[in-house]
Amino acid sequence: MEDLHSIIDRCLTNDHKCQKTLYERYYGYALKVVFRYIYRYEKAVDVVNDGFVKIFRSLEKFDCTEKEHLEKIWMGWIKRIMINTAIDELRKSNMIPEIGGLPDYIWEIQDKSQGADQRILYKEIIEQVKKLPPSYRVAFNMFVIDGFSHQEIAEKLGITVGTSKSNLAKARIQLKKFIDKDVQEADICSR
Fold first, then answer.
1. CB–CB of 44/35 below 8 Å?
2. Which secondary structure element, helix H or strand E, spans residue 67, and what is its range?
3. Per-residue pLDDT at 94 exceeds 50
């Protein structure tokens, strides 16, 4: 398997084979990131493809002097681009909530050290987050899962910092209600 640094270098020269390798290697990761924002599979695939176009167009801006952490930094860069592309799509669609099921292979975790329990937990959390109203869902995803500050969320979504904080607080309250309800239902079924 060719190392990431040489693949990126060759992508900079528009080597289509390396671009395809990079795309295929990180497609699943990018799709998982986008699915936290856009739930309709076909639309999410379009957003991922748009995101990869942005990646290849701005690849010369990617700079990593710490070669031992290249993949971690690379994945962070992909994540940022995919999130921004998904938010752009939500903004363009007036944040209309996406609906639809997700194919099971989406939940495959690339890190082999993570087991089935973590995959199930991840899927259950995402299913609960999907139930949130769009504005709460986006604030939760951006702040809790993707690590944006309230200032960054406000700037990206064109809202105030107070609205971002309010949406996050309401999302947490709503998620707690969802989880409490699931726990109660599980208790009733186990009796």
1. yes
2. none
3. yes
What pLDDT shows up at residue 26? 96
> Based on the number of CB atoms within 10 Å of its own CB, is 42 exposed (0-12), middle (13-18) or buried (19 or more)?
exposed
List where CATH 1.10.1740.10 sits in the chain: 1-105
For 142-177, write each residue's pLDDT tens digit: 998 888 999 999 998 889 999 999 999 999 999 888
Identify the band that residue 118 occupies on the pLDDT scale cut at 50, 70 and 90.
low
Quote the CA–CA distance of 147 and 141 in Å, as a whole number: 8
- For 16, the token pair is 């289509």
| Whole-structure pTM value | 0.69
First to last CA, the chain: 52
Please give the CATH topology (third level) of the domain spanning 1-105: Rna Polymerase Sigma Factor; Chain: A (1.10.1740)
